[in-house]
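Bench log. Compound arrived from synthesis this morning; before running ITC I wanted a structural hypothesis for how flavin-adenine dinucleotide sits in the protein. Inputs:
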Amino acid sequence: MIDLELGSEHEALVETLRDWGAKEVAPKVHDLDRAHRFEPDFIRQMAELQLLGICLPEEYGGAGMDYVSLGLACEELEYVDTHLRVIMSVHVGLNSMTLWCWGSEEQKQSYLAPQARGDRIATYGLTEPNAGSDAVGIQTTAVRRGDRYVLNGEKTWISLADVADHFLVIAWTDQEKKKKRDHSGMSAFIVERGFKGFSSYSLTEKWGILAGNTGGFSLQDVEVPVENRVGEEGEGFRIAMFALENGRYTVAAGATGLIRACRDASVRYAQGRETFGVPIGQHQLVKEMIAQMVSDYEASRLLWLQAGWMKNTGRRNTRETSLAKWFATVASERAAADAVQVHGANGYSDEYPVGRYYRNCKAAVIYEGSREVHKLMQADYALGYRRDKPRRVELPAYRG
Ligand SMILES: Cc1cc2nc3c(=O)[nH]c(=O)nc-3n(C[C@H](O)[C@H](O)[C@H](O)COP(=O)(O)OP(=O)(O)OC[C@H]3O[C@@H](n4cnc5c(N)ncnc54)[C@H](O)[C@@H]3O)c2cc1C
């Protein structure tokens, strides 16, 4: 039986994060966003709150909580600002959960444990200047030379590119398969910022998630020890997709938090602002926008909770997570547009937070599988063109 009831540890987590977000982040986020400035101290505080290893086992430095806790944290963080949830998406969802499931024991000790404690920050490098949705179109190569691989390529639109210490990089190890676009020629690697030939930069023309860091990195003859290959040679594409399944879950829960932030700001404003002698909340067309936010919030929350429950119980959730991510991100765009509308001209000013929500929500409709990619996935499942194939490695059920 599906059980979506929150436990006392979930409620305590939510309370702690609401308190932290309201006291430590909310008062600063407007100025950081305006200044396009990333505040590294938030990462330190998130580490203290044990968020950076929230659903990872205690033996690897994690907090040992369940996957619903990860979703709850993402919802609460994005309620305050999207960039905090992005940290969770790349550090925990895309990178650390992947290392935990696919990494060797040595990799877990050397990379996962410091990441889970928050001593090292990690991200995920799949996208390239000419390949996003079409992951098989990447050009980065990894050529084996003795006990090392030599990596060459360019990755762009990478969250925390200028902040992270560790990068999960997807590259082609089989050049013949690359020519044939056969994804069984791809492999995954852990690259450290300190490796010779690695350099990163920040994107400066980005117009949303401005308190977050997004950039790219270049690999110029970067020598990576064989021990840093994650999984077997040829498993890179599968590992990349596995990572995205957990990343998408965090994005779905985060977008749900953004809808709630839109709803709360709109309710507050609609109760105070008067036109034609009554609060605007009394006008039916304003009620309609708020009602839509209410239903979008509840539906998005149920969808990510369903995916979280499936993760907790060890059920395959590729389809449900894709649906949660698609629905919640599209709904968050609708909620943010309407939140600006409810605020009238004031919504068009950064004196109110809704303009920031509007700018921040759009990226999630693009990354971790665009709206179109998820639409295609859902249609293909329904039509029977797509079926989940068994994987060598699965996310373990939550054992308590
Ligand atoms: C803020 C931000 C942070 C990011 N962080 C990361 C990160 O940390 N790591 C990382 O690897 N990447 C990251 N990305 C990159 C992101 O994953 C890609 O932008 C995404 O995969 C889309 O790729 P693209 O931008 O190349 O668009 P394209 O793939 O070129 O797509 C362009 C448009 O065409 C549509 N389209 C493409 N193919 C099809 C098709 N077959 N059918 C129908 N429509 C199609 C798309 O939906 C989209 O609307 C980030 C992006 C942003 C904006």
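What the model suggests: DSSP finds eleven helices and ten strands in the chain. The chain has three domains: 8-121, 123-234, 238-383.
ITC booked for Thursday regardless.
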